[in-house]
Amino acid sequence: MTNQSGQESWPDISGRLIEGGHSFPVRVYYEDTDFTGVVYHAAYLKFIERARTNFLRLCGIHHRELGEGVHGEPLAFAVRHMEIDFLKPARIDDLLEVISTIETQKGARFVLSQSVTLFGDTLFRARVTIAVISPDGRPRRLPEGLAKRLQGQVFA
Predict the structure, then answer these.
(1) 10 Å Cβ neighbour count for 109?
(2) Rounded to whole angstroms, how far apart are CA atoms 55 and 61?
(3) pLDDT in the model for residue 4
(4) Which pLDDT value is given to residue 5?
(5) For the purposes of burial, counting CB atoms within 10 Å of the CB of 26, is it exposed (0-12), middle (13-18) or buried (19 or more)?
(6) I need a surface site. Which of 5, 12, 109, 111 has the fewest CB within 10 A?
(7) Is the pLDDT of residue 16 over 80?
(8) Which residues, other chains included, contact 65 with Cβ-Cβ below 8 Å and sequence gap of 6+?
(9) What local confidence, expressed as pLDDT, does residue 97 receive?
(10) What's the CA gap between 109 and 130, in Å, rounded?
């Protein structure tokens, strides 16, 4: 969200870039849990999706601009593959941290490692392959200028 001056009104709403990647805070709400107050498995996917989107945003890559073709032809990101491990439960009211790191970035795809932690204890891990695609679903290279923005974040 920006104010009338074009400045971020809430500068930390997207998390922050850290050495080695991105940190994104997530509070566990009632809607994220099952009837016992434990985070429902699909909620972790929402947490890491929000973190990925904000990581890219802080790298200067915006979904709207991609879709509108601001950097060339219209493009989108699609999850191509995901490996996940549920290690420990999170519970209602927990304040979690999602850590995202780009392992590799090449051509039409990049791979991220993402973890959800509670006070440094890893609860959930995912390895996510993201494909860059055209509106009709065909693989496309990320425009060179955007690829350079990600290359500075690769910490394999």
Answers:
(1) 19
(2) 9
(3) 54
(4) 47
(5) buried
(6) 5
(7) yes
(8) 71
(9) 98
(10) 5
More confident residue, 149 or 32: 32
Active site residue 121: no
Q: Which one of 34, 85, 93, 121 is the catalytic residue?
A: 34
Nearest to 98 by CA among 148, 21, 25: 25
pTM of the model: 0.90
Contacts by 47-51, CB closer than 8 A, 24 or more apart: 47/96, 47/98, 47/116, 48/98, 48/100, 48/114, 48/116, 48/124, 48/126, 48/128, 50/24, 50/26, 50/98, 51/15, 51/22, 51/24, 51/26, 51/98, 51/100, 51/114
Burial of 96 (0-12, 13-18, 19+ CB in 10 A): buried
